[in-house]
Fold:
Amino acid sequence: MYEYAETAALRIAYDVSGPAQGQTVVTVHGWPDDIHCWEAVLPDLHQAGCRVYRPYLRGFGPTRFRSPDRPRSGQIGALGRDLADFIEALDLHDVVVAGHDWGARAGYVVGALFPERIRALIAISAGYSTNRPDSEVPYPLAHAYWYEWYVATARGREMLERDRRGFCRYLWTTWSPGWEIADADFDRAATAWDNPDWAEISAHAYLHRWGEAPGDPAYQDLEHRLAEPPPVRVPSLVLHGERDGDNLAETTEGKDDLFAEHYQRILLPDVGHFPPREAPAATAEAILRLTPTTGP
Structure:
């Protein structure tokens, strides 16, 4: 059974595990995935004495909007505000945030704009950058991001609705070449995409990212502050697979000036877009580098 955190916008479903008095770690999944991406990472975190919270993002699993009239936005400012609100709703302090993909982008927002409750940030498979839709995109990266433009078409949005499992299975396969995806793991994650808001939020995330759709006015101030990215103000580590076929490894290069505190970048050889699933031991080790531990 999941627990729930009530925020102004959402009823956020989450799982919590590990020692009750342990160091607080909030792990945030990416797109398209779910909280079970951290399953193989948990044993090492628990052994080190960590209390781990795993929330479902908006549009995933049992997380629901509190109002039917709230725009189903997937913009980065909304994801970051959701994470900040989740941490505040549970009155968590001294939090280590570990985020993958969309979770990493939410983590950057919290680390830059809401750092008061954050101890450290581990960002996986996504670089920190400007939130402006006119930012430069090299052609190899544009090729990798084909799906973001695909969902700008009616045909692409139909695929999100009608064949979300087939669409996402293709993304998983191409983003992590050579990784043998266990059918049971994929099917378990895919149940989270049956959320009634998943397709709309997924499409809006990329339409908004490239300036093809307006954002939720509730996050206008946040988006303005993120347009020229403010520095992340907590110690940070970026973990990236060298074979990432989505956010290419080069997207996390040369970012040192965007981090005001300790910053480290680690590349994982022979790993694609999903380090928590493909390399759970290395992922746990990266998280624990910035996490006080009480275990053996």
